[in-house]
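RECORD TYPE: inverse folding
INPUT: structure tokens
STRUCTURE:
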């Protein structure tokens, strides 16, 4: 449930009966989806802003279904990645590893942070785990793991923090 708070939280209008609000929200989304499909009005009923061109994107004619999105880094690969690439190239081209290593000595690899599929109406975006910002866990988990609160249930009392 914590993973979907961003999408579901605005739909909850009652703290006393949250599931009624969630049921209504899911029903409305399903109805809108059916209307979009039946009458072919995806753009008109879309609740999201249209995706425009992103500064720094890269597309190749060899792969028309995908575009690469920033962040973008061009750097020498790590030693373990370079060893794997060298071995794969040696196997693919039928040369020894030392010859492949000589060609890969000054290699630079471009790393992109995101790949977006553009061949569908959804436009799925896949993010690289090593690039971009790191998502942090929700703050209640951090608070519960870091400290244990006592007297928190008593109104107007100071919570006593114990480690």
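DESIGNED SEQUENCE:
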């Amino acid at each position: 449930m914590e993973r979907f708070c961003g999408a579901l939280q605005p739909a909850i209008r009652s703290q006393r009966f949250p599931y009624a609000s969630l049921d209504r929200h899911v029903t409305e989304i399903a109805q809108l989806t059916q209307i979009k499909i039946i009458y072919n009005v995806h753009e008109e009923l879309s609740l999201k802003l249209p995706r425009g061109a992103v500064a720094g994107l890269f597309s190749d004619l060899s792969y028309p279904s995908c575009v690469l999105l920033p962040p973008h880094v061009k750097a020498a690969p790590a030693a373990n990645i370079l060893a794997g690439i060298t071995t794969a190239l040696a196997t693919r081209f039928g040369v020894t590893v030392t010859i492949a290593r000589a060609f890969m000595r000054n290699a630079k690899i471009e790393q992109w942070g995101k790949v977006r599929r553009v061949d569908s109406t959804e436009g799925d975006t896949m993010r690289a785990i090593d690039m971009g910002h790191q998502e942090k866990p929700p703050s209640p988990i951090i608070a519960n793991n870091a400290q244990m609160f006592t007297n928190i249930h008593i109104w107007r009392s100071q919570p006593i923090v114990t480690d």
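NOTES: The beta strands are 58-60, 63-75, 109-117, 125-127, 148-150, 160-162.
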